């Protein structure tokens, strides 16, 4: 199954479970307090996921390494390479 | 195993207008392989560059020997990394294939060590873990990179931290199998390789790399690139 397929299945499952409980006819409803929490649940989860995303990306952005030494080392390598190759007869 | 029983590494370098970078990349690779004592060959696949890349490649061939440097030219209007690799693999005699961009180089030896450690099918470079990182990136570029990677991880759950890597080591049979299955173009192709590899049960090892911007010139990251990335990502999401 494709990732899209997995997501659709997952959403269908959760969605129908939520709809069954939240939109049930008066005879089959869960007690009032549960219903109150259940109805806005999808929105809550969306907002929670949004916050998690922001926090995660923010953290990863802050801890993104800057490789100063690698850059310096590369410059050294470049000089060494040019010198060596020129000596071996490469015409740049 | 390659002839003789020892490992041999074939480096595939697709090039387009890399006259400046090519000698440096070749020199760095040759030195790393010599230091680690590994048998190697470098296969340069040039797409009819007008800037004299092939001429430089021929000079390098004379300096290093034609068993070490192999020049292959293809002239193709639809030159994408995929075609270059297919072409290059036909001439590869190693049992491990290294794929990298010709515009930057890494600590190649780390990859071999990692592969040996875990006997991995694929070793991929990551900028996001360990002491991997970047150089010369402003905040905006880093944010876009991390944001794009986050979306990729959520949607594709690929099992690797960095999908748009420019440096990978593959077992030859693994690469051949993946090339048959992958259909994307450009760098989305690189992403697809890892996703499919995961699905096929191949083991993937990661090595932190320092991504130093193009030795000469700057990489572009404009609105167009972002849009095409998202399109590629959504395509992979729907098809893998």
TrEMBL record, chain A:
Its biological function? Answer: Stabilizer subunit of the dolichol-phosphate mannose (DPM) synthase complex; tethers catalytic subunit to the ER.
Main localization category:
endoplasmic reticulum
Subunit (UniProt): Component of the dolichol-phosphate mannose (DPM) synthase complex.
The cellular component terms of Gene Ontology attached to this UniProt record, alphabetical and capped at eight, are:
dolichol-phosphate-mannose synthase complex; endoplasmic reticulum membrane
Compartment list: Endoplasmic reticulum membrane
Indicate the transmembrane segments per the record: 43-62
In Gene Ontology terms, what is one molecular function of this protein?
A: glycosyltransferase activity
Name this polypeptide is given: Dolichol-phosphate mannosyltransferase subunit 3
What are the boundaries of the signal sequence?
1-19
TrEMBL record, chain B:
Keywords (alphabetical) are: Endoplasmic reticulum, Glycosyltransferase, Magnesium, Manganese, Metal-binding, Transferase
Function of this protein? Answer: Transfers mannose from GDP-mannose to dolichol monophosphate to form dolichol phosphate mannose (Dol-P-Man) which is the mannosyl donor in pathways leading to N-glycosylation, glycosyl phosphatidylinositol membrane anchoring, and O-mannosylation of proteins; catalytic subunit of the dolichol-phosphate mannose (DPM) synthase complex.
Annotated InterPro entries: DPM1-like (IPR039528), Glyco_trans_2-like (IPR001173), Nucleotide-diphossugar_trans (IPR029044)
- Say which family it is in: Belongs to the glycosyltransferase 2 family.
Q: Indicate what this protein is called per its UniProt record.
A: Dolichol-phosphate mannosyltransferase subunit 1
Per the record's keyword annotation, is Manganese included, yes or no?
yes
Supply the PANTHER family for this chain.
Answer: DOLICHOL-PHOSPHATE MANNOSYLTRANSFERASE SUBUNIT 1
What gene is this protein a product of?
DPM1
